[in-house]
Amino acid sequence: MTRDHFISWAESQGYQFDDQGHLLKKLSNGVLMRFRIIRGIVHQETRYNEELDLWQSISHGKLSELNISKDNLIKGLTPAIRETNS
Questions:
Q1: Cα separation of 46 and 57, whole Å?
Q2: pLDDT over 70 for what percent of the chain?
Q3: SS3 state of residue 1
């Protein structure tokens, strides 16, 4: 998958770019999700502490190894749990 293809898919799912170039989406339950693409790796994260701007990594994968399923879901992300600042 190319970066442009991934971005098109993310935007079709309601993600929008923030001022730092990350793709953000607020879910109906108020949870904020984001995708960051760094050096060809897609990182999927959720913010769990708004005051401290702490994020938890929930999955990641090489952009070149990702696919879109018949159900329009991303395939190829590996589950991971790790917290990050900003």
A1: 7
A2: 94
A3: coil
CA distance 42 to 3: 9
Among candidate residues 27, 32, 25, 29, the one with its CA nearest the CA of residue 7? 25
Query: Any idea which residue has 């998958």 for tokens?
Result: 1
State the residue for tokens 């993600």. 15
23 is written with which tokens?
């793709």
Residue keyed to tokens 């923030």: 18
pTM of structure: 0.85
DSSP code per residue over 12-81? HTT-EE-TTS-EEEE-TTS-EEEEEEETTEEEEEEEEETTTTEEEEEEEEEGGG-EE-TTS-EE-PEEEE
- Summary mean pLDDT of the chain: 92
